[in-house]
Amino acid sequence: MRAGAGFIFSTILIILLFGGREVTFIFYNWWLAKWSEDEGHRHRYWRNCTTAKNKSMNTIRSMNDTGWNHYQQQQFNIYSGSYM
């Protein structure tokens, strides 16, 4: 009976560990995609005069260089901190 309980516990533990690893990798990929998209919003040349409807895109495009550098450093710190 004790051997069966150990097997069940170890199976559940392995599933939780692998599931946690997958969730972590999905978060890293999502964060990098968001970060890359922000970079694209910052440096994209807009050919028409329409206003962007995305509030975060408007915020990013209206930043000066100092604000942009601070934002990038903050994003890097969040990504690095979540990796540790």
From TrEMBL:
Q: What is this protein called?
A: Uncharacterized protein
Keywords from UniProt, A to Z, are:
Membrane, Transmembrane, Transmembrane helix
The portions of this protein that span the membrane are 6-32
Q: Which domain of life is it from?
A: Eukaryota
